[in-house]
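Severity: low
Component: inverse-folding endpoint
Summary: output formatting inconsistent between runs
Steps to reproduce: submit the following structure tokens with default settings.
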């Protein structure tokens, strides 16, 4: 009620120390120390051009091996990056090597163009643009 004065709680230092200790341990459990930082891939990056006459911007920097490996890996084709197809479209043509070694001497499958004297003559006429009809 409004008319009654509140009872004053006697502060117990041991009890206060225990409460502070629990708060401190709770904060330590929820805190996380971030030591690795990276660029957010969902955020647009604004490029700032360097000053052309600045001496510290024109120093040669050593190549970062990890970055170069990432770039070279990204430039490879999917068959060199992955052991198997990653999508349905990649499955078509994933194994593009011939299953059977082609036998070039087998005339049942290989029909090579053979030239004789008359076919060479006619091919030369056609390449020069001459018409084979009589006038």
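Observed output (run 2 of 3):
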């Amino acid at each position: 009620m409004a008319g009654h004065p509140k009872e004053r709680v006697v502060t117990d230092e041991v009890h206060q120390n225990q409460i502070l200790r629990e708060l401190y341990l709770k904060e330590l459990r929820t805190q996380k120390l971030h030591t690795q930082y990276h660029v957010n891939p969902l955020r647009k990056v604004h490029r700032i051009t360097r000053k052309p006459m600045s001496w510290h911007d024109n120093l040669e920097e050593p190549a970062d091996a990890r970055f170069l490996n990432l770039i070279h890996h990204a430039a490879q084709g999917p068959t060199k990056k992955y052991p198997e197809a990653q999508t349905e479209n990649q499955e078509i043509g994933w194994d593009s090597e011939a299953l059977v070694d082609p036998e070039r001497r087998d005339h049942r499958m290989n029909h090579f163009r053979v030239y004789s004297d008359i076919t060479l003559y006619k091919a030369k006429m056609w390449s020069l643009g001459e018409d084979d009809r009589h006038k």
